Amino acid sequence: MSTVERPPAGTVERPPAGTVERPPAGTVERRSASVLGPWRGGSAGGAGRRGLAEAPRRWRAGSDGDGRDRGIDGLRAYAIGGVVFGHWLVTALVLGPDGALRTASPLAAMPALAPLTWLFQTLGLFFFVSGYASARSLRSATARGLDPARWLRRRLGRLGRPVLLLLGGWLTVLAVAALLGAPAATLRTAATLVISPLWFLLPLVLLIASTAPLARLLDRYGPVRLAVPAVALVTLSDLAGRSADLSGWPVPLPGDGAWRVPVAVLAGWLLPYLLGMAFADGRLGGRRTAVGLLLAGAAGMAGLGWAGYPLSAVGVPGDGVSNLDPPSLFAVCLALAQIGAALLLRPALAGALARPGRWAPVHRLNTVAMSVYLWHQSTLLGVTALAALAVRLADAGPVPGLHTAPAGSGWVAARLVWLPLLVLVLYVLVGRAGGDRQVR
Question: What is the pLDDT of residues 221-254, one digit of tens each?
């Protein structure tokens, strides 16, 4: 009968030199992974800390060797593509008899197309992936010993350079066009289209600047408690905007209502930004949460539509009320539905982007996302203006899909024909502008 040799009592058995001790099979080694690392306050316990501890493992699902989440990068590419193609499809530049270009919207003549705006108005999804990227970037910076203030300066610097390049270039173009006698209406249209993409940068900058304190609040209170006041502020803004007489309110509202726009813009986009940060911390990884967001957002959109909110996710000339200026409860519900759907599709999207051929264009678009956003309206304006100049020199009629009024499906078909050229010109413009630095 064989015997088993045991070490003497009081001794500690050590593995042989050169071997690596591993945990028992079936166990998972966990590490702490707070967004702020050593700058995060509070204790290490609690459910919120457990969610943070699981975050790196969640990130690795669908990630490449550099730690990038290909599913999230795919969602960012869709979000920026939705904004670009959405603007190109709902912005018509009509050439008038005086040779001036003026804006019009096909949604005014074809209101049945309003549900399509739910696919193309992706600002909520864009703020979601921005919150995710900021949380991850701050975590990485603190792990390298970079304090939040220096991290913020570097991150905002990436936004400032392409904006200054855009403004400087167009100031020169508009000045030259004015000297050459371009119609005043065309100059106003051009200035509006160039500046319009910049409106969202202010809330984005403020939210990025607030990432560190938001991370501490998120760690302490969780996303639900922080979402409630944001939704309440957007609701208050909607009520104030839709009530002609506020004198009967139990709580008087300040000022003349001018506060609505900044409050609704910040509160409306704070919610998806917070959800993105929460997802980066591993709090929204469950399928049940994703389904809940999708159903809650869709139910809210249906209820608000029944209550009289416009069904279009973007403003329509002549409607008087817009779901985007400032963001309404309808825009918030749309963002929730999009985020829920995105979380459900993310694993499949990450799998589809595992192939290098599919991943390469998505990765490239992510590295130049800000430049694409800033220059896409300039692309539409430039192509349309050059075509108008050619029409004037050739004494020809307006070009369908570029200069004609968006009065029916024929205009939509003609505009679709122009999209490949717009993509090509935008590609050249972004390449000339130098693109962006990669944002994680």
Answer: 988 899 999 999 999 888 877 765 455 554 555 5
Q: pLDDT of 269-294, one tens digit each?
A: 999 999 999 999 888 778 899 999 99
List CB contacts of 395: < 8 A, sequence separation 6 or more. Answer: none
CB < 8 Å & 24+ apart, contacts of 397-406 = 398/94, 398/95, 402/93, 403/93, 403/94, 403/95, 403/101, 404/92, 404/94, 404/95, 405/92, 405/94, 405/104, 405/109, 406/92, 406/94, 406/104, 406/105, 406/106, 406/108, 406/109, 406/110
Q: Is 90 exposed, middle or buried (0-12, 13-18, 19+ CB in 10 A)?
A: buried
Burial (0-12, 13-18, 19+ Cβ within 10 Å), 415: buried
Instruction: Count Cβ atoms below 10 Å from residue 85 Cβ, excluding itself.
Output: 18
110: which 2 tokens? 């074809």
Chain-centroid distance, C-alpha 32: 28
Alpha-helical runs (H) found in 201-286: 201-209, 211-242, 260-280
Q: How far apart are CA 51 and CA 31, in angstroms?
A: 11
pTM: 0.81
DSSP class of residue 327 equals B
- d(Cα 118, Cα 312) in Å, to the nearest integer? 7
